[in-house]
């Protein structure tokens, strides 16, 4: 399972929208969308969150 697949699975399992997850992490919704689509990866500080 790839990072983006796992992120999407966990986000849905917890019932978070991309917007809600982004808000909790202090990033934009677009960043979460890019992570889930595989267009970008979070930096190490965001991975810890």
Number of helices: 4
Radius of gyration, whole Å: 10 Å
**Overall pLDDT:** 94
CATH topology-level name: 434 Repressor (Amino-terminal Domain)
Query: How many strand elements?
Result: 0
The helix/strand series, from N terminus to C terminus, equals: HHHH
Major beta sheet, specifics? none
N- to C-terminal separation?
A: 20 Å
**CATH class categorisation:** Mainly Alpha
What helical percentage do the residues reach? 55-70%
Strand content: under 5%
CATH superfamily: lambda repressor-like DNA-binding domains
Q: What structural class is derived from the secondary structure elements?
A: mainly alpha
Count of discrete domains: 1
Stretches where pLDDT is under 50 for at least 5 consecutive residues are none
Essential attributes:
49 residues; mainly alpha; 434 Repressor (Amino-terminal Domain); 4 helices; 69% helix
Written overview of the protein:
The protein is mainly alpha-helical and 49 residues long. It has a single domain (3-48), classed as lambda repressor-like DNA-binding domains (434 Repressor (Amino-terminal Domain), Orthogonal Bundle). Helices cover 69% and strands 0% of the residues. It is built from 4 helices and no strands. The chain has helices at residues 3-14, 18-25, 29-37, 44-48. The protein starts with a helix and ends with a helix. The mean pLDDT is 94.
């Amino acid at each position: 399972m790839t990072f983006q697949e796992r992120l999407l699975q966990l986000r849905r399992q917890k019932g978070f929208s991309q917007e809600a997850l982004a808000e909790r992490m202090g990033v934009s919704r677009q960043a979460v969308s890019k992570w889930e689509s595989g267009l970008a990866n979070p930096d190490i500080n965001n991975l810890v969150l």
